[in-house]
Amino acid sequence: MHEIVYFDSPGFAEVSRFCLELSGLEWKNTTVDWDGYTKMKEQGELPWGYLPIIRTPEGVICESNALLRYTGALAGIEPKDLFTRAKVDELVEVINGWRQHFIPTFAIDDLDEKIAARQVMFDDGGKMDLALKAVSDIVENSTTGWLASTDDMTIADIKGFMDTFMMFSGQFDGVVPEMLVKYPALLAFHEKMSNDERVKNYYNNDDEIRWVFRPGAFDDFKSSDNI
User: How many whole angstroms separate alpha carbon 220 and alpha carbon 157?
Assistant: First the structure.
């Protein structure tokens, strides 16, 4: 059995949770709170000191992108062609880049200052604005609708979908769904992914945290008078 250990939030583990579900293999989703994480770290259960990890029959794997590639292979959605696989991995790294811009804002204690710092990043020409425009360009240049122009979904699509739209879930002060109106290609990509039967079936529940992954999640904001 495979077991993912992480916090309850989507965070760095959601993409691998979804891939394990796609794999059809038996797997376990173990969630911990901060005390549970600290205990695991103190007991040496985390090779690099961080979550998520995945326990496999062969041993423990760490680092979220490594987990994504591993679980993507289990799910059978890693391209067999070496060049195509490399292009998929390239996109995974590009998409991962937004975190590098966003993460420093978590260290800002003052709420107003934190919100202001984040909003600047989403202004025209800001770091997050440029990152989302880059992903938009990838969507627009695709010949199949999938990010790497593949015939079917890959880990790049899963990461692009989950990492991008989770930002607008309401969990992060200063980042609101209305900001997405500037990126119609991203909203079109959301519709493609959220209406894919595999995604739709996985998120066919009442989980309030993961509302952003469901079909029509941003329809109300697109028609808002504030836009």
Answer: 24
DSSP string, 73-103: HHHT-S-SSHHHHHHHHHHHHHHHHHHHHHG
User: Do residues 180 and 137 touch, judged by C-beta distance below 8 A?
Assistant: no
Integer angstrom CA distances of residue 186 from 12, 80, 95, 164, 189: 20, 27, 13, 9, 5
Q: Alpha-carbon distance 190 to 213, whole Å?
A: 8
Tokens (6 digits) for 187: 């909203």
Q: Domain ends where: 32, 55, 75?
A: 75
pLDDT in tens, 98-125: 777 888 898 999 999 999 999 999 999 9
Same domain, 27 and 94: no
Domain range for 135? 82-222
- What's the CA gap between 210 and 152, in Å, rounded? 23
Has residue 227 been placed in a domain?
no
**Residue that terminates a domain, selected from 50, 75, 100:** 75
Domain count across the chain: 2
Give residue-wise pLDDT tens across range 125-151.
999 999 999 999 999 999 999 999 999
